[in-house]
Design brief:
The protein is of the alpha+beta class. It is built from 12 helices and 6 strands. The strands form 2 sheets. Strands 1-2-6-3 form a 4-stranded antiparallel β-sheet. Strands 4-5 form a two-stranded antiparallel ribbon. The structure holds flavin-adenine dinucleotide.
Length: 270
């Protein structure tokens, strides 16, 4: 039992992914369909980028990515599975007992204190003590339920926290993955899912550089932030981070303004 951190592994990608997308795109305009699948894949990257610029995105749905994600909380996967155009397999809290569950500690607790009866207790220590207490109560409830295994796990788990670690396998096609990045790389998304999204982006950029060349939060595609008062106020900085071709015309000292999102934007309800 102890704290864990997000780890994402790219388990599988469609073979010759960008070549397949190029073939799918070219098939739409080809008289000789056989040639489309025998193409030299050297020009695939350029063709994929052209498709993306044209907004012709259905060909990219033929490519799928399977990620194994661990070291994340149930709070995070509750947000993740809201993305409906994907397939998920998640470790069960019924079939797997959670006597020694791991958990995720929100980093912002570091350096904070909890006041109890005039005493200041380190917030991380307090959080960990709470996890230990829950584990103890979970075990007692399992005993009360009379047996080990599925029948006791399934009801004892009601006391497990959102922080409880889970493991999940997710398969998503490239089009939905780009949408997922638009939503979850935005500073408005919570830190934990954002951290997983950052790891995923790095992994897929290595295997499909053209497809994900300009992937990022939605402000990159929209050319500005639609979040109104929830904006991070750092569009230039975000653009520089995610769009390698971006040439800023704004002076450096303006770009480096601290992000205005701060605590307000990090407390969305998702
Ligand atoms: C910062 C942030 C805060 C959030 N806060 C909350 C919150 O407080 N409460 C809450 O409930 N949710 C919240 N969400 C979750 C959000 O509402 C979506 O459920 C989630 O982001 C999944 O994205 P999506 O709906 O675009 O679609 P996905 O499931 O990823 O689907 C992709 C796209 O397919 C299309 N699509 C999918 N299913 C349908 C359908 N049935 N009908 C029509 N079109 C469809 C849509 O165009 C959709 O955008 C939040 C999300 C973010 C990023």
């Amino acid at each position: 039992m102890g704290s864990v951190k997000t780890k994402v592994v790219l388990i599988r990608v469609t073979d010759e992914a960008e070549g397949l997308i190029a073939s799918a795109g070219k098939l739409c305009y080809a008289h000789d369909s056989q040639k489309v699948f025998q193409m030299n894949s050297n020009d695939s990257g350029q063709f994929v980028q052209k498709l993306m610029q044209m907004g012709h995105e259905s060909p990219i749905e033929h490519v799928v990515f399977t990620f194994y994600i661990e070291g994340v909380s149930r709070a995070m996967t509750h947000q993740l599975v809201r993305h409906r155009l994907a397939s998920y397999s998640q470790r069960s809290q019924r079939y797997v007992d959670h006597n020694e569950f791991h958990y995720v500690v929100p980093p912002r607790l570091q350096g904070k204190t909890v006041e109890i009866d005039g005493e200041s207790i380190d917030a991380v220590v307090y959080f960990e003590q709470t996890m230990d207490l829950i584990a103890e109560r979970y075990a007692k409830l399992q005993d009360a339920l009379g047996q080990k295994g599925e029948k006791s796990n399934e009801d004892a788990r009601y006391v497990l926290p959102n922080a409880c670690e889970t493991k999940i396998l997710m398969t998503m096609n490239a089009r939905e993955l780009l949408h997922f990045f638009e939503e979850r790389l935005c500073i408005r998304a919570q830190w934990e899912i954002r951290s997983a999204a950052e790891q995923m982006l790095k992994l897929v950029k290595d295997v499909c550089p053209s497809l994900f060349a300009k992937a990022g939060p939605k402000c990159i595609r929209l050319g500005g932030c639609p979040e109104g008062t929830g904006s991070c106020g750092n569009y230039e900085g975000i653009k520089r981070k995610y769009d390698p071709e971006y040439k800023s015309e704004v002076k450096q000292d303006i770009i480096d303004l601290p992000c205005k999102a701060s605590s307000k934007s990090l407390h969305v309800n998702d």
